[in-house]
Amino acid sequence: SSTAAQAEGRFAFTPIDIQTDATVHVPDGYRWDLLIRWGDPLFSDAPAFDNTTGGASEGADRVFGENTDGMELFSVGEKQVIAVNHEYANRDINLPQRAEGQPDNADDVKKLQNLQGVTVMEVTRGAEGWRVILDSPLNRRITHLTEMEIKGPAAGHELLKTADDPSGIRSLGTFNNCGAGRTPWGTYLTCEENFNGYFGSTDPDVDLPDGYGRYGIGLDGWGYDYHRFDPRFDISQTPNEPHRMGYVVEIDPADPQSTPIKHTGLGRFKHENAEVVLAPDGRVVVYMGDDERGEFLYKFVSRSVYAPGRSTEGLLDDGQLYVAKFHEDGSGTWIALTPETTEMSAAEIAIFTRMAASKVGATTMDRPEWVAVNPISVEGYCCLTNNKNRGVKPNAGGDETPANGPNPRTENHYGQIVRWYPANDDHAASDFTWDLYVMAGNPLVHDDAYAGSENIHAVNLFNSPDAMQFDSTGLLWIQTDGKDSNEGDFEGMGNNQMLVGDPVTGRIERFLTGPTGSEVTGLCWSADRRAMFVGIQHPDAPFPDGEGQLPRSSVVVIEREDGGLLG
Ligand code: FEO
Ligand code: CA
Ligand code: CA
Ligand code: CA
């Protein structure tokens, strides 16, 4: 095969070819197994999965949810716990008995609400391999209905108050949980992305409040139809409810009774993930992308420092939010979003972060997805997944989106990964320099700039980098969410995949391919780093159960056949 050559250097595997089939592939010497699928029980009282109904509505909050996405593994004493997001619903699959998956009643809506959110689950490796421990006291489902506490500058603000919560500090549920992160104090961060899609109006003539347009909140929603059966999602009835979503939420995986916290100080936008790193002085730095065309890359820096054993109260609430400005000369600036720079109050900056960032002239980006920080070198990376409609604003009030330094292509089907080096090796610094780690492209069909950067070659082709994690050795694992037609501009790219990048040499090679129609998203390691957990989201092939069965988003576990380390 074209990839027969054993990879050199730091890659302990032979790169695999593209695939276009309905299963997962990994290199020789590695194997994959299923860990858990949508609908698998977390508790023994949960209903068994039913292929004709997609599972009962009753008990949908007792099973592994739909559309696995970002995840992290935590050690809780001797136990290992994975927290994992359930981003959205595949309605036609989750409600297969309804035409086009359209909810028919309040029970259908409640089922969808319960299949999304977050799972916390204890995992262990036995003689038969890795499995989820049914009925572990650490198992937990967090859904669109779980009580949350709101903290930070917007907590209690008028715009967050509703009839059900006149305090503005108690909300229900976390929504469209996309990417993830972890804090140094052992908590999970889950990031609310396309929350706008859950809202609609039963009154077609209602006036939309200021601030809806930039976030894409409108009368119709994206087909979840919550608003027809649950007045909380009917903007003609509960116009402030959308202001209570679009945040980063902190969950303590060691305490199933704990109340998740929405941290408004990290801003409100279509959060992809939250990559946390400590500055040299101990301040907490959180990097975050806003995944929409023409939106921005952000950073939060805490006011206080983290010190093990000391209270972490306020570390994600009290601090400064910045937005990135990339200069054409390869330098860059983090611009503080303050009442002085934006003429907005601290609460307004937290709620309408996109508008605040536009006021300071931040750099419009090609859909910032995951940020990853190298653990052995002071540098950050962000996937800019693609931009298929440059110049067409996705939402009212957005900025013009010309091609620019880190987003150089007018028509960007392939995406790129931008890298920055903080000044003084300090992630809290206001200045940085930047370059492009990779411009994805296709040298099989283009011989111009669309062929991609020098580290793209005929046998590592991919498009739309999305999720991204560093391992402990400083290798960068890249997961894709792109076109898998394998034709035209995408010839030679096959199904979505996971690749490994060496930040030093720039080399990138393919490690895993997913089933047809799926996106590969979410990655974490066992405590001993001999297992890697990978998310397979929204397959349209009947993965993993085969023909005649509903496709089910799944977490798979990868091990080396010789039991060696994976990162
Ligand atoms: Fe949920 Fe931007 O990916
Ligand atoms: Ca993503
Ligand atoms: Ca994506
Ligand atoms: Ca996705």
Automatic annotation (TrEMBL):
PROSITE patterns: TAT. Signal peptide: none annotated. Residues 389-410 are annotated as: Disordered. It comes from the Bacteria. InterPro entries: PhoX (IPR008557), TAT_signal (IPR006311). PANTHER family: DUF839 DOMAIN-CONTAINING PROTEIN, SLR8030 PROTEIN. This is Phosphatase.
